[in-house]
Specification:
The protein is of the alpha/beta class. It has seven helices and 14 strands. It starts with a strand and ends in a 6-residue tail after the last helix. It has one domain: Ribonuclease Z/Hydroxyacylglutathione hydrolase-like (Metallo-beta-lactamase, Chain A), CATH 3.60.15.10.
């Protein structure tokens, strides 16, 4: 499985395109919110002859959903996420107004993902883990064969997702990391919703929220 990362919008959010040799791809957390950013994303897909088959949100905070409508409309894709993120997405217009960010309404979540399900495309299958705490129902996606994890805003290099937003809970987030992510193994590469990628092993040993 190949992972392409793009950093978009004023929140410096990481958008991911996952693809394999079938040329099918999945777009996760499209944060593009202007024509230039949209062109970067669609240009990569076109240049690599990829066919998007899924639009997925790890969670539905504003910086991760700004490009949902663009991707959904351009590639005729339904939105996939956990049902527990519906209330977050429903409040997005209010959040956008609060931040003063132009917002094109995201499509509703119509395909609900749960832990124990798989996110599949081409020759690739990712395990789905329920990792709440940063948001009410964040999901993480793990490709066991290549030891790669798409973690959204659950875990960062040297930090964790904020827990002061509606639906956030510090103890829940720490539990999600310790019971769902750390057991995957130290060699697992973690792609974060903001900032650089890291590994489970590095965070286990050095992350101040996890050490001790």
């Amino acid at each position: 499985m190949n992972v392409a990362q793009f950093t978009f919008n004023s929140f410096a959010e990481n958008t991911f395109v996952l693809y394999d040799d079938s040329k099918e791809c999945v777009i996760i957390d499209p944060g593009c919110n202007n024509p230039d950013e949209e062109a970067i994303l669609s240009g990569f897909i076109q240049e690599n002859n990829l066919t998007p088959t899924k639009l997925v949100n790890t969670h539905c905070h504003i910086d991760h959903v700004l490009g949902n409508q663009y991707v959904s409309e351009k590639y005729s894709l339904s939105l996939e996420a956990h049902k527990g993120e519906k209330a977050v997405l429903d409040n997005m217009q209010n959040v956008a107004s609060l931040y003063g960010i132009p917002y094109t309404k995201s499509p509703e979540i119509t395909i609900f993902l749960e832990e124990g399900d798989y996110l599949s495309f081409g020759h690739t299958r990712l395990e789905i883990y329920f990792t709440p705490g940063h948001s009410p129902a964040s999901l993480s996606f793990f490709h066991r064969e290549s030891k790669q994890l798409i973690a959204g805003d659950v875990l960062f290099q040297g930090s964790i997702g904020r827990t002061d937003l509606p639906g956030g809970n510090y103890d829940t987030l720490i539990d999600s990391i310790k019971t769902k992510i750390l057991p995957l193994g130290d060699e697992v590469k973690v792609y974060c919703g903001h900032g650089p990628s890291t590994t489970v092993g590095i965070e286990r040993k050095t992350n101040p929220f996890l050490v001790g």
